[in-house]
Amino acid sequence: MLRPLLCLMSLACTLSAADLKWSPLPSLPDERGFAGSFAGVVDGVLMVAGGTHFRDKMPWEGGTKLWYDTVYALDKPDGTWRVAGKLPKANGYGVSITTPQGWIILGGGNATEHFREVFWVGKNAQLPPLPKACAFMCGCASDDVIYLCGGIETPTATTAMNTFWSLDLKQADAKWQELPPCPGKPRILACMAAANGVVHLFSGAALHAGKDGKAEREWLNDAWAYQQGTGWTKLPDMPRVAVAAPIPAPVMGSKILVIGGDDGANVNFEPKEKHPGFPRSILAFDVKTQTWSQAGEVPFSLVTTNVVPWQKQIVIPGGEARPGVRSPKVWSGVMK
């Protein structure tokens, strides 16, 4: 059994997000790093698992994306990463959430299929599979209830799923519930967070088939809130798009922090190897005043990765630094 974990995703403070101090933790033991990996905490140990990278060539050079199943563990902030095992199969771009009961990995996929499996890491207990195979969705937890929104069912899908699911971990025989979908466009790679019992959904990208039959993205900057019994409410639009920002978004006092994310401004940047990276600014949504503000910057440019509460700090491990390029760096944010 796992020892209960103190969930620090909601930091009890009144300071501004700009007061976060960021510093590097030991880098992951793979010089390429990973995008789309899973991260969480098991028995006080920080873990990162799965994900993808391009080993020899970038995608525009004909490189092949490789998928991984390795689980890495870091016992303490000044420690050394070690290999702690393997996932049931190579996996990436699902959702991982650390709850007081432990670390859960949900869905994801590889180059040929997406998955329905949901499982605790390091815990001998079963959780029901997703209603459908799903990857590139977003998720968060509120009062031991997991929420998942959007994503795509297959790697070649040209439309996003118009889905919103919940799973109540407090119920011994919990089953996935299909909730009313967000009134906005179906999306992938959105950002999600829970604050004061309300689930918040930000940005993401809608999909449609392009002239070549492959999926093309429509960049979204809308924002929504869902509360049980009330349903969905439209929130003020975001100051900018933030696709694939690290999730679940951390909460500081009354503010939800959307860290970085791809704003789409450089989607056609050439030459690709000189891409400047994704935005580093932090957007803060105040749930009390229902307003957006700028809240400083981070010293890194990382998307398709996780936010993990660990030892009174916010940890963002690896991710995609610019198109095709991963990072092995692991960053920690603490109050100054």
Sheet having the most strands: 5 strands, mixed
Question: According to CATH, what is the topology?
Answer: Neuraminidase
- Largest beta sheet: what is the strand line-up? 1-20-21-22-23
Q: Oligomer, anyone?
A: single chain
The CATH fourth-level homologous superfamily: Kelch-type beta propeller
Tell me the structural class.
mainly beta
Listing every helix as H and every strand as E from the N terminus to the C terminus, the arrangement reads EEEEEEEEEEEEEEEEEEEEEEEEEE
- The pLDDT mean sits at 92
- Terminus-to-terminus distance: 35 Å
- Any idea what the radius of gyration is? 18 Å
Which runs of at least 5 residues are low in confidence (pLDDT < 50)?
A: 1-15
Keywords: Kelch repeat, Repeat, Signal
Signal peptide: 1-17
Protein name: N-acetylneuraminic acid mutarotase
InterPro entries: Kelch-typ_b-propeller (IPR015915), NANM (IPR056734)
Structure explained in plain terms:
The chain is an all-beta fold and 336 residues long. It has one domain (13-335): 6 Propeller (Neuraminidase), CATH 2.120.10.80. Helix content is 0%, strand content 42%. It has strands spanning 10-11, 20-25, 38-42, 45-54, 65-74, 82-86, 95-99, 102-106, 118-120, 138-142, 145-149, 164-168, 177-178, 191-195, 198-202, 205-209, 215-219, 223-227, 231-235, 251-252, 255-259, 281-286, 291-297, 308-310, 313-322, 325-335. The strands form seven sheets. It has a five-stranded mixed β-sheet with strand order 1-20-21-22-23, with no helix packed on it. Strands 2-26-25-24 form a four-stranded antiparallel β-sheet, with no helix packed on it. It has a four-stranded antiparallel β-sheet with strand order 3-4-5-6, with no helix packed on it. It holds the Pfam family NANM. Keywords: Kelch repeat, Repeat, Signal. Residues 1-17 form the signal peptide.
